[in-house]
Amino acid sequence: MLIIDSKDCENIDKALKKYKKKFEKSKVLLQLRERQSFTKPSIKRRQEVLKAAYKQQIASGKIEK
């Protein structure tokens, strides 16, 4: 449960913006999407390895964003 501390004089738009930021940081939506379908552990591991290799190539300067 997300709790937003808001002052009485604070605008509702600011409070909504704070709520959206907290919701994104909590990664609830990402977990929900992950649970919609099962992914085998071997596929998860392969994706992690490919992502790490991609990041390594960017860091070394071989690939530019």
From TrEMBL:
UniProt source species: Limnovirga soli
GO CC annotations, alphabetized: ribonucleoprotein complex; ribosome
Pfam assignment, any one: Ribosomal_S21
| Keyword Ion transport on entry | no
What HAMAP family does the annotation carry? Ribosomal_bS21
- GO terms for biological process, alphabetical: translation
List the keywords (alphabetical): Ribonucleoprotein, Ribosomal protein
The protein's matches in InterPro entries, at most eight in alphabetical order, are given as:
Ribosomal_bS21, Ribosomal_bS21_sf
Name of the protein in its database record? Small ribosomal subunit protein bS21
Similarity field? Belongs to the bacterial ribosomal protein bS21 family.
- Gene Ontology MF terms in the entry: structural constituent of ribosome
